[in-house]
């Protein structure tokens, strides 16, 4: 049975808010990451593998792997917040389960428990081969805090 949350799309307003915020993240741009799915409480971020992201053995560096996981969880939480709210990571824990390799990595952030102040997310990162074969390379958990959107 296929997971419906993977197919469900957030409203156009929420998708635009997440896309606009993602576009402001210099690190995501620097890494070459992009949003692949924005659903209620679930966001996928894809990171094409290239030599600049690797460590000394040729695998994607743990820093890049955990960075896209952190952002995927943060944006998953943001999809459930009102337009006057933002999100900040309070803490997260990542387990690196296998060398991060493939054509690209896909980070999936899924809200486990939304809250008025704190939200908890599950983080997963898959190494995806050119033929579509997926391998879980990292998983974790994250706590986020809802904050008021800064006034400009």
Please give a quick description of this structure.
This protein has 152 residues and is of the alpha+beta class.
Helix content: 25-40%
Q: Total number of β-strand segments?
A: 6
Strand order of the largest sheet: 1-2-4-5-6-3
Which consecutive residue ranges, at least 5 long each, have pLDDT under 50?
1-5
If helices are DSSP runs of H or I spanning 4 or more residues, what is the number of helices? 4
Biggest pleated-sheet summary: 6 strands, antiparallel
Computed over alpha carbons, the radius of gyration is 15 Å
Which structural class do you get from the secondary structure elements? Answer: alpha+beta
What best-fitting shape do the alpha-carbon axes yield?
A: globular
Strand content: 35-45%
Report on the architecture of this protein.
With 152 residues, the chain is an alpha+beta fold. The protein has four helices and six strands; from the N terminus they run αααββαββββ. 26% of the residues lie in helices and 40% in strands. β1 and β2 (42-48) form a beta hairpin. Mean pLDDT is 95; it is low at 1-5.
List keywords for this structure.
6-stranded antiparallel β-sheet; 6 strands; globular; 152 residues; 4 helices; alpha+beta; disordered N terminus
Detail the topology: elements first, then pairings.
Blueprint: H1 4-7, H2 12-23, H3 26-31, E1 34-39, E2 42-48, H4 62-78, E3 85-96, E4 104-113, E5 118-128, E6 134-148
Antiparallel strand pairs: 1-2, 2-4, 3-6, 4-5, 5-6
């Amino acid at each position: 049975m296929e997971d419906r949350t993977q197919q469900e799309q957030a409203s156009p307003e929420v998708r635009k808010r997440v896309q606009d915020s993602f576009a402001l993240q210099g690190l995501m741009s620097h890494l070459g990451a992009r949003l692949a799915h924005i659903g209620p409480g679930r966001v996928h971020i894809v990171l094409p593998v290239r030599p600049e992201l690797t460590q000394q053995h040729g695998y994607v560096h743990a820093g890049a792997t955990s960075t896209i996981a952190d952002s995927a969880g943060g944006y998953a939480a943001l999809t459930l917040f009102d337009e006057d709210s933002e999100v900040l990571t309070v803490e997260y824990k990542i387990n690196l389960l296998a060398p991060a390799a493939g054509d690209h990595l896909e980070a999936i952030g899924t809200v486990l428990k939304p809250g008025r102040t704190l939200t908890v997310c599950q983080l997963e990162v898959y190494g995806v081969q050119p033929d579509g074969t997926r391998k879980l390379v990292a998983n974790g958990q994250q706590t986020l805090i809802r904050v008021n959107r800064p006034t400009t």
